[in-house]
Amino acid sequence: MAKRIILIVLDSVGVGELPDAAAYNDKRADTLGHIFDALGDSFSLPNLAKLGLYKLINTKNRVPEVEVVGCYGKIMTKSFAKDTTAGHWEMSGIILKKPFPTYPNGFPKEIIDEFERLIETKILGNCVASGTEIIKQLGAEHQRTGYPIAYTSADSVFQIAAHEETFGLNRLYEICQIARKLMQGDDGVGRIIARPFIGTQGSYTRTTNRRDYSLTPPETTVLDEIKNSGGEVTAVGKIEDIFNGRGITKAIHTKGNLNGMDVTLNEVNQPNQKSKLIFTNLVDFDMLWGHRRNIEAYANGLKDFDGFLLNLIKSLNDNDMLIVTADHGCDPTYKPHTDHTREYVPLLVYGKKLKGNVSLGTRKTLSDISQTIADVFGLPKMKNGDSFKSSISNEK
Q: Cα–Cα distances in Å, from 100 out to 158, 281, 295?
């Protein structure tokens, strides 16, 4: 069957609340449906529609009937979490039984004291905050004192902001690695995030040199199985960070969605003889537009991807398989909070030799993706998930 699978994660593009959304304070969240509601009939994503996206969205506005050439469904997150690491790990085959820890009141004194001892300086912040707001509030003091800014959110993250020029990018990465070694066991947050910024007081802006330092996956993933079998796994965007490098044979860090799409297309256009997974994360939907509740920018980002999709499909080889999905929601219209939202995510599958206009239904776990990848590549069966290969394949 497929020699290559291109798996693209539209970070945070959810398609409606999960049954347990109320437990996460996310009742009635619907990232994609509410964007369509807000923008009216003039908003369209014609190429995603051809893959079956319009079959998955709930909107008060009319969407046109189109010829569907892809296979489509929606997927539940089975892990008890709604964050990036849990979502990506689940689609690679790991279902978390216990959520990563969060710190709604900031980090305990003993953690901060030990962190300050290890980095040999004080820190600022230690609170729950918006990343853009906290550099407005503490950026000048940070530059004056040289103390890095530590903060968190509703997600399981330990974020450290520092000025690229006065503090230094390498120094920021270094103290993030120290924080990663510190935050283990019961305090093992999903990610340590380096949040560099530039500028002067009143005009600070975050840069694209963000780095994520995740825990190492505790179990075998489909990435490991591909690599161990002699295949290739190319990680585009923050995928390498999410898996702490495990199961990756080539990593390309990117400067946002547009760069990530260019890199993905370039990788697709490379000759290939081995089983290969190109695994891309497009983070701007979440980082720049979802959390900041910027509906218009989110919609424009979706249009950019929809336009890119046309070129990507033209570049696919006969035996390639394209999977487009997401890791969670982040509804830009949602008012109760500005965090991720607990939602179904889309499952769109396309290949020139695959069936078209096939409903894959509502899948019970993101791990169905990893089980299908293993099935397609003839790898050992994964611990979790059900393969949908037989539903999309024309092979007897």
A: 12, 21, 29
Domains of the chain: 4-94+217-392 (3.40.720.10), 109-214 (3.30.70.1250)
Note the pLDDT tens digit of each residue in 305-316.
999 999 999 999
Whether pLDDT at 1 is above 80? no
Q: 340-354: per-residue pLDDT in tens?
A: 999 999 999 999 999
Show the 3-state SS of the chain.
Answer: CCCEEEEEEECCCCCCECCCHHHHCCCCCCHHHHHHHHHHHHCCCHHHHHHCHHHCCCCCCCCCCCCCCCEEEEECCCCCCCCHHHHHHHHHCCCCCCCCCCCECECCHHHHHHHHHHHCCCCEEEEECCHHHHHHHHHHHHHHHCCCEEEECCCCEEEEEEEHHHHHHHHHHHHHHHHHHHCCHHHCCCEEEEEEEECCCCCCEECCCCEEEECCCCCCCHHHHHHHCCCEEEEECCHHHHCCCCCCCEEECCCCHHHHHHHHHHHHCCCCCCCEEEEEEECHHHHHHHCCCCHHHHHHHHHHHHHHHHHHHHHCCCCEEEEEECCCECCCCCCCCCCCECECEEEEEECCCECCCEEEEEECCCHHHHHHHHHHHCCCCCCCCCCCHHHHECCC
Handedness of CA 238, 234, 297, 45 (dihedral sign): negative
Cα–Cα separations (whole angstroms), residue 118 to 159, 179, 222: 16, 9, 36
Q: How far apart are the first and last CA of the chain?
A: 11
